[in-house]
Amino acid sequence: xxxxxxxxxxxxxxxxxxxxxxxxxxxxxxxxxxxxxxxxxxxxxxxxxxxxxxxxxxxxxxxxxxxxxxxxxxxxxxxxxxxxxxxxxxxxxxxxxxxxxxxxxxxxxxxxxxxxxxxxxxxxxxxxxxxxxxxxxxxxxxxxxxxxxxxxxxxxxxxxxxxxxxxxxxxxxxxxxxxxxxxxxxxxxxxxxxxxxxxxxxxxxxxxxxxxxxxxxxx
Length: 219
Known about the structure:
The protein is mostly helical. The protein has one domain. Helices cover 48% and strands 7% of the residues. The protein has a 3-stranded antiparallel beta sheet, covered by helices on one side. Strand 1 and strand 2 form a beta hairpin. Helix 1 runs antiparallel to helix 3. The longest helix has 32 residues. It is globular and about 50 Å long.
């Protein structure tokens, strides 16, 4: 995996087929946690995903024409609760009412972003090499936000709560077996963190590119 760089008016990272399969599998797992069901087959299973040691999802979102009338409690799965946090820590009634009004829309928007990322990983970008993971500047904010969602779920599975937990993660994995689930998830978490950092770096280097009509090409 190679970091994002600007190329031909796009942000481009290099990922081989195995790396794309791993990330696409995590994307599909997180979408399923949010109630989307499994995305259609297109990438072989690449190893244990964030469902490892997971509880059941918090139910599918309401349909597009359904209006919730009852208060909505927080998700049972702590990873999903990181993706859909309480609006108020002090008032449970306010938090449940806010969920009733907004959670289905938030789930749907997150799932849509996950599906877009999954499609880009599985099918690639026409006219680009097979190992090119191509992000248009106008889509970069959504991709960065989706990478954050993936990292939040993996962080929950790895019991990362603080910066100190993150720093201690790899020290505690020294000598772990190659098929150890925790070691696998930690390596994916590290790769996604690094990939996101490189994407943010190219975004910050040219912030005007993400405005409509302001893109430019590097050749």
